[in-house]
Design goal:
This protein is 29% helix and 24% strand. By secondary structure, the protein is an alpha/beta fold. Strands 1, 2, 3, 4, 5, 6, 7, 8 and 9 form a nine-stranded parallel sheet that branches. A seven-stranded antiparallel sheet has the order 12-13-14-11-10-15-16. Bound molecules: pyridoxal-5'-phosphate.
């Protein structure tokens, strides 16, 4: 996972010196496996980790990671005691949750407040934010350590909208300071905001996509210079080579009544592992011996390949569905594309359904 470290450095290079990085590890670290990723990010010195999933946050704690873990939200007021018990930082956007923290806290306890600057998902509405944050800051044992917002976008039009949200956020932070509340951590930009160089007066960013080498933008809207996918390869092995004589009725993938001889290969990876049939009209391939091999069919536990030209293929040979083999390479974008998924979705469907191996040294 040298790549993850390099992506952290590439993000740092785009930020004002001293800007804190809060690393988003939500959704099982975007499908890459939350505990190993959290360990590596903690070692690379990020300011905090952030997730919305309580069980995953607890798994990270159980793995011995002691740093700050921010909970993005989605917790009912009743859950606040559980969060504090595991030393997880609650995100607050209503008074009931703030009061629950105050009640459950035995000592001064950090919370972050989320402001809705236009996304319309979680958060206290921007118009109500200043009095709300001041009121929360006055509750016993509640310390407003951070205030943040989330205004993600995927294209240039979205960037202009997002910049407006950041200005609104800055004005809230300034109004709080005027009232005597200086918030230690302020954060408003995620991957897209950092990538596109949007401006704010915050001292932190909260990024996920770019750390994993995934673009948060629709294709062609931003370059990912300096960032590389941390998912290096998805591989399997031939578990069978089928040699079908001419005229034999081969049904897989609808190849009925073949007149020519056909060699097929099967790999031990199918729908159950997160693959799916190539979308109509999409050509799917994998790599064998550094060359492209067409996918005939994806079934529940197996994928069948057309090994024409590889008549001497043998059981046990390595097959690459994503990654490099010799001079050929299949990108995660190509792999996701033939399944009509986004790269992130494709990775998330693989997660927990394939054994992952982490390499500390991965390069090139
Ligand atoms: C997911 C998330 C982020 C990170 O977004 P990326 O686009 O992956 O960088 C930041 N803030 C909040 C509140 C989020 O939910």
């Amino acid at each position: 996972m040298g790549t993850l470290d390099r992506n952290c450095r590439a993000l740092t290079a785009r930020l004002k010196p001293g800007t804190h990085i809060i690393a988003s590890i939500k959704a099982d670290a975007y499908g890459h496996g939350v505990v190993p990723i959290a360990e590596r990010l903690a070692a690379s010195g990020v300011f905090a980790l952030a997730t919305g999933d309580f069980d995953e946050a607890v798994a990270v704690r159980r793995a011995g990671i002691a740093g700050k873990i921010l909970m993005f939200g989605g917790n009912l007021p009743d859950a606040m005691g559980d969060l504090l018990e595991h030393d997880l930082i609650p995100t607050i956007y209503n008074m009931a949750a703030a009061e629950a923290v105050s009640k459950a806290a035995a000592k001064p306890t950090a919370v972050y407040i989320k402001v809705d600057c236009g996304l319309g998902r979680l958060g206290i509405l921007a118009d109500d934010a200043v009095p709300f944050i001041l009121a929360v800051s006055r509750l016993p044992n509640v310390v407003v350590e951070g205030v943040y917002t989330h205004v993600p976008f995927g294209d240039r039009a979205g960037a202009a909208w997002s910049q407006g949200g950041l200005r609104r956020f800055d004005s809230i932070i300034a109004a709080l300071a005027k009232q005597g509340l200086n918030v230690p951590i302020t954060q408003a930009r995620a991957s897209a905001g950092a990538l596109m160089g949007l401006e704010d007066s915050c001292n932190a960013v909260c990024a996920g996509h770019v750390l994993y080498g995934l673009s948060p933008m629709v294709a062609g809207e931003a370059t990912m210079d300096g960032f590389e996918p941390i998912l290096r390869s998805v591989q399997s092995r031939l578990i069978h080579v089928g040699r079908h004589p001419a005229g034999r009725d081969v049904a897989i993938g609808g190849l009925y009544g073949l007149n020519t001889a056909k060699v097929t290969g099967v790999i031990a990876m199918g729908v159950t592992n997160g693959l799916r049939m190539p979308a109509r009209g999409q050509r799917a391939s994998v790599l064998l011996r550094g060359r492209r091999v067409p996918v005939i069919s994806v079934s529940l536990e197996h994928t069948t390949l057309d090994l024409t030209g590889f008549e001497d293929a043998t059981v046990g040979e390595l097959v690459t569905a994503v990654g490099r083999d010799g001079a050929e390479r299949i990108s995660i974008e190509e792999f996701a594309g033939w399944q009509e998924r986004s790269p992130l979705e494709a990775i998330m469907t693989l997660s927990k359904r394939l054994p992952f191996r982490y390499r500390a040294d991965s390069a090139g």
